[in-house]
Amino acid sequence: MAEDSQIKIVNGAAGYVLEDVPHLTDYIPDLATYPNPLQDNPAYSVVKQYFVNVDDTVAEKIVVHKNSPRGIHFRRAGPRQKVYFESGEVHACIVTCGGLCPGLNTVIREIVCGLYNMYGVNKVLGIDGGYKGFYAKNTITLTPKVVDDIHKRGGTILGTSRGGHETSKIVDSIQDRGINQVYVIGGDGTQKGAAVIYEEIRRRGLKVAVAGIPKTIDNDIPVIDKSFGFDTAVEEAQRAINAAHVEAESIENGIGVVKLMGRYSGFIAMYATLASRDVDCCLIPESPFFLEGKGGLFEFIKNRLKENGHMVIVLAEGAGQDLLAKSLQSMNQQDASGNKLLQDVGLWISQKIKDHFTRERKMVINLKYIDPTYMIRAVPSIASDNVYCTLLAHSAVHGAMAGYTGFTVGPVNGRHSYIPFKLRALITSLMGRLLVGSPRAGDFIGQTCPVNDLRITEKQKQVVITDRMWARLLSSTDQPSFICPRVVAESRKNHDEPPTQLLDGDSCKETHE
Ligand SMILES: Nc1ncnc2c1ncn2[C@@H]1O[C@H](COP(=O)(O)OP(=O)(O)O)[C@@H](O)[C@H]1O
Ligand SMILES: O=P(O)(O)OC[C@H]1O[C@](O)(COP(=O)(O)O)[C@@H](O)[C@@H]1O
Ligand SMILES: [Mg+2]
Q1: Integer distance in angstroms from the first to the last C-alpha of the chain?
Q2: How far is the CA of 104 from the centre of ligand 1 (A)?
Q3: In this structure, which ligand is nearest to the CA of 101?
Q4: Helices (H) and strands (E) in the chain, counts
Q5: Which atom of ligand 1 is nearest to the CA of 99?
Q6: Which segments of 95-154 does DSSP mark as H helices, in order?
């Protein structure tokens, strides 16, 4: 067990490490247990071995070598034979925080229906308008009837907000209302907030389970395979890319520019580009680029227009922010949650391209800029995301009923798992490894992950531009990598061995806040 009593690490033979999640009995001993009501539920009782074995764990690494350690494992999500809450005792609440994401309503719906239908719970409250709703607003009663068709709508029926995380007021409200299960749906900021709430609840010795459901359209939460709403966003982005392509190919020297979401991580832009095949150039925050000179964006545009007569550029909102900061002398403004406010890279780059070709090259170009970001975020989730949201919600409900707390749910290599808010796995798994940080153009620097006490929320998953996926993209668009070949060669020379598949997916870096 680690020195910090809230971090539960179990070491086994052959380098097996379990990053366990906290349990209510860690700080309230002798809690009563009850048989899981699912065993008498006709829908579930037909399943052989419906309950998850208490010892089941999920491996973080599935590609291993003969002599490599077995690595980090997480507790497998799912229903347990014993539960720590009686049905009538449960008083649950659900809160949604941060930016919108397709699927929020589906998760809300499935938590409510899961609690009612699987566990016979009939007291579920919705917190209105994010964290501040705990102490500043009235609650909303949630029943299966109320949430019946909300999955067909975008947004969140509960409302959301940034900022306003006042821990003691929130926990006072939880205590005063007699809430004993808290379901928190939100991104990295929200999960940080949930971790603090869990710590305060534990300090007060309350029998309250805190479960996080990770939400981020940017897909930037580490460890889990993918966040809900991401597939919907990639799908919806196709409409904007198609429109940009139609516009561009209809006119001489047509250029379509599409901005997609992705503050620090360019996953939506990368997948939307790979899916579309109409995109000539994809720009993401992880891959710095430059405009002028040999190998720069302007030269590429000139050549592509010469070859094809038109082109489409997709860029993530966080791309090229270093260039914008230089040229616009931006102020360091933040939103209410402390997230850096970004400049509009789409507008900026569109203007730069127009200026360059019309003024400097005296060339007529027709550029159309499409910003579908908020339209994409506001749509209802597609079918596959709905199923995924259902599994996330059910995993969270099973975990809380089983007495686990201080955890986030999510699939790890396809298996739903409970991941502690306080996560040391990342340290161990990343220790000593070279990660690509945020290199500047021509400045390809590998960074070593600092060995600190980390949480799932203190790293961001990013596109690794030395991975095969980014190479696939470069090969599909045939765009420049914007990295000086000499620096790549030097970086290769510094690796004793060729890059290994074990590195796939190690795509985390420290948060930017
Ligand atoms: N470090 C933190 N500690 C406590 N609460 C936080 C922290 N960071 C963000 N929050 C709270 O989490 C909520 C959502 O955060 P935000 O960054 O806006 O969105 P997201 O969760 O989608 O990343 C806000 O109410 C914010 O106050
Ligand atoms: O305008 P808003 O609501 O602050 O949201 C903008 C941000 O929200 C996001 O869509 C998602 O961010 P969060 O996951 O932090 O909510 C980002 O891509 C984007 O920068
Ligand atoms: Mg965030």
Answers
A1: 30
A2: 16
A3: 2
A4: 15, 21
A5: 22
A6: 104-119, 133-136
Query: How many angstroms separate the Cα of 349 from the Cα of each of 111, 121, 163, 332?
Result: 43, 53, 31, 20
How many C-beta atoms surround the C-beta of residue 281 within 10 A? 21
Distances 115 to 111, 131, 410 between C-alpha atoms, Å: 6, 22, 18
Pairing type for strands 181-186 and 92-96 reads: parallel
CB neighbours (10 Å) of residue 329?
7
Whether 186 lines ligand 1, by a CB cut-off of 6 Å, is: yes
CA–CA dist 343, 333 (Å, integer): 10
Which ligand places an atom closest to the C-alpha of 191?
1
Closest atom of ligand 1 to 335 CA is 18
Distance (Å, rounded) from C-alpha 131 to C-alpha 291?
42
Q: List the binding residues for substrate.
A: 216-218, 261-263, 317, 374-377
pLDDT digits (tens, 9 = 90+) for 281-333: 999 999 999 999 999 999 999 999 999 999 999 999 999 998 988 776 656 78
Q: Which residues contact 13 (CB under 8 A, 6 or more apart)?
A: none
Residue 13: how many other CB atoms lie within 10 Å: 6
**Residue 218 appears among annotated catalytic residues:** yes
Q: How far is Cα 449 from Cα 435, in angstroms, rounded to an integer?
A: 7
CB distance 114 to ligand 1 below 6 Å: no
Residue 131 Cβ contacting ligand 1 at under 6 Å: yes
Of the candidates 274, 195, 270, the residue with the CA atom closest to the CA atom of residue 462: 270
DSSP secondary structure letters along 424-436: -HHHHHHTT-EEE
Determine which one of 20, 218, 278, 280 is catalytic: 218
How far, in Å, is the centroid of ligand 2 from the Cα of 373?
10
Query: pLDDT tens, 30-46?
Result: 999 999 999 988 888 77
Which residue has its alpha carbon closest to ligand 1 atom 1?
A: 192
The 10s digit of each residue's pLDDT in 222-236 is 899 999 999 999 999
Tokens describing residue 144: 């299966």
Residues with CB under 6 A from ligand 2: 98-99, 187, 189, 216-218, 261-263, 317, 335, 339, 377
Cβ atoms of 159 and 130 closer than 8 Å: yes
